[in-house]
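Example record

The entry below shows one chain as it appears in the dataset: sequence first, then structure tokens.
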Amino acid sequence: MAIDNVLKLYSETIRSEFLHYGYWNNPELIDYDKVTLNEIKNAQNKYIENLSSYIPNNVKTVLDVGCGIGGNTKFLINKGYNVEALSPDDYQKSIINKNFNGEIVFHHTKFEDYISQNKYDLLLESESACYIKIEKGFKKAREILNNNGYLLVSDYFVYFRDKTKNPHLKSSHDLNKYLSGADKYGFKLVKEYDQTENTMPTLDYATYFLERFINPSIEYGVYSVNKNFPKLSMIFKKLVGTKLNKKKEQLNLINSNEFRKYRKYMIFLFQKRDM
């Protein structure tokens, strides 16, 4: 997905330990011409600081589901939690091994396929719930959570659909179906927060960054090739033209207005209840 590539670029550019949307206080006051890399990095840090404030006081053991490159895991360990990490991604596994030197328990598997001898007080799904099928996800959560354990979810959900093929309608769960699934499998919604507006500045700055720096460079490159190597330019267009158009469509994912139209970026704290 295009947004994943943009977030990865963010992470590499600002040398961040995190790979997510970030969290901005007072987003309406941001002047993108004056945003610094340090402010972007602070937004990445603020994301997990805010999310961790939803963790109940009695929680000790945590499984970080879809742990990314380990930023959230490290933050929670430093807060005193006993944390294990899980991801099926080979690249993320290599980064985790490098950053933690084998000092944390890492499970290289899909969450749905995870077989555990342990049970946890809390499962954290930070921008990973969208990759887990609803029924399988809640079934597995019930299986490996302690009695009265918690599921903390921070992710984007589709709340509106139309007949278009807008990319925002893909790779996200329907909000109502997700909440219905939680209820069906015995999870009580304890807290919720719509953090959409707090996360949109990341998309807005990504758009600004592309329009201010990346697109002009690409346009100049295309102009130069067209002018100096017209035959090569024609061959290139035939070979990659369709792929480029698809990539342009995917960039619609960083359009914050389109995001708001179809999705909400929610925090949900669920508690496992008796059935």
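Notes for this example: Residues 196-228 form the longest helix (33 residues). The first strand starts at residue 61 and ends at 65.
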